[in-house]
Automatic annotation (TrEMBL):
<protein>
    <submittedName>
        <fullName>Diguanylate cyclase/phosphodiesterase</fullName>
    </submittedName>
</protein>
<feature type="domain" description="EAL">
    <location>
        <begin position="23"/>
        <end position="278"/>
    </location>
</feature>
């Protein structure tokens, strides 16, 4: 008979295999969803409030996956798997297309918006990304200055030289580059100085409890100051309360994003929200 130890090793391996198969199944389903484009995948939009002008001139696009059985798969899970499997390239292409189409539709309705798209290191490393983006901008008649690309410090470091080269090209054509989740990565301030970026997006972990935490307030206000000294625009994500919003306004943060203003919603709901706000 197998010893207890052997049994638990075997069970552990069986569990691992099961997890592995589950991941493969999700990737496969995602591939199908992208190929069929049958509405399982869609984009939600979350407004970013311009704190100086008190207007909404930007949104972040956030992908959603609602399977045909009605269940949701979290983006954290399937984006991670798409990155590991290489499917992210195709997925990002799909997102770019949806968002540009939306910007064109909004403009036809008289609404000029800037949209942020989340990208990964792989997207930027891919040789065709820039030409794809230029082609899509042309096709949907969208200005490069209507697009922000958000990527994390970690993504920048993964393939640093190539990514920096690509970011420089993108910035040159007028695309805005934003460092997402700023403050939780391990990049040095020296690095920040070298990066071809326009915007810092302070991670929500510093913002969620802003009004209760002296330390967070110190970190956030000095990050905003630093960003401004480096000529960058600063966005705070995870703004869930009126008091956080007010503090950020006092600290001269440029944009605020979070549930206090709006959750990520469909394009129609976003337009309704905007109309109610302006009314
Ligand atoms: P992220 O880019 O940091 O996006 C911000 C996340 O915070 C979103 O989660 C958003 O719904 C959530 N959030 C917004 N306001 C608040 C708030 O006030 N409080 C709290 N607690 N959370 C807030 P979501 O939509 O689940 O997305 C998770 C992550 O998945 C994103 O993090 C991003 O890394 C990735 N992701 C989402 N859509 C895309 C996409 O189209 N492409 C890629 N590559 N990644 C995406
Ligand atoms: Ca983001
Ligand atoms: Ca973020
Ligand atoms: Ca994140």
């Amino acid at each position: 008979a197998a010893s207890k130890e052997q049994q638990s090793v075997r069970m552990y391996q069986a569990g691992e295999d099961e997890e592995h198969l589950k991941r493969l199944a999700i990737i496969d389903e995602l591939k199908q969803a992208l190929k069929n484009d049958d509405g399982q995948l869609y984009i939600n939009y979350q407004p970013k409030l311009n704190l100086e002008k008190n207007t909404v001139d930007k949104v972040e696009s956030l992908i959603r996956w609602k399977k045909l059985d009605g269940s949701f798969v979290s983006p954290e899970l399937f984006i991670g798997l798409a990155e590991k499997s290489g499917l992210i390239i195709e997925l990002t292409h799909w997102v770019v297309k949806q968002v540009l189409m939306q910007l064109q539709n909004w403009r036809n309705d008289g609404l000029m918006m800037t949209a942020a798209i989340n990208v990964s290191a792989q997207d930027l490393s891919h040789s065709e990304f820039l030409s794809f983006l230029l082609n899509q901008l042309d096709q949907f008649d969208v200005n490069p200055d209507q697009i922000t690309l958000e990527l994390t410090e970690r993504d920048i470091m993964i393939n640093e030289d190539l990514v920096i080269e690509r970011l420089t090209q993108l910035k040159k054509i007028g695309i805005t580059i934003s460092v997402d989740d700023y403050g939780i990565g391990q990049s040095s301030l020296g690095k920040l100085k070298q990066l071809p970026v326009d915007e810092l997006k302070i991670d929500k972990s510093f913002i969620l409890k802003l009004s209760e935490s002296d330390k967070d307030q110190k970190i956030v206000s000095s990050t905003i100051e630093l960003g401004h000294k480096l000529g960058l625009s600063v966005v705070a994500e995870g703004v869930e309360t009126e008091s956080s919003l007010q503090l950020l306004q006092t600290m001269k943060c440029n944009h605020a994003q979070g549930y206090y203003l709006s959750r990520p919603v469909s394009s129609n709901e976003f337009v309704e929200w905007l109309q109610q706000r302006d009314a």
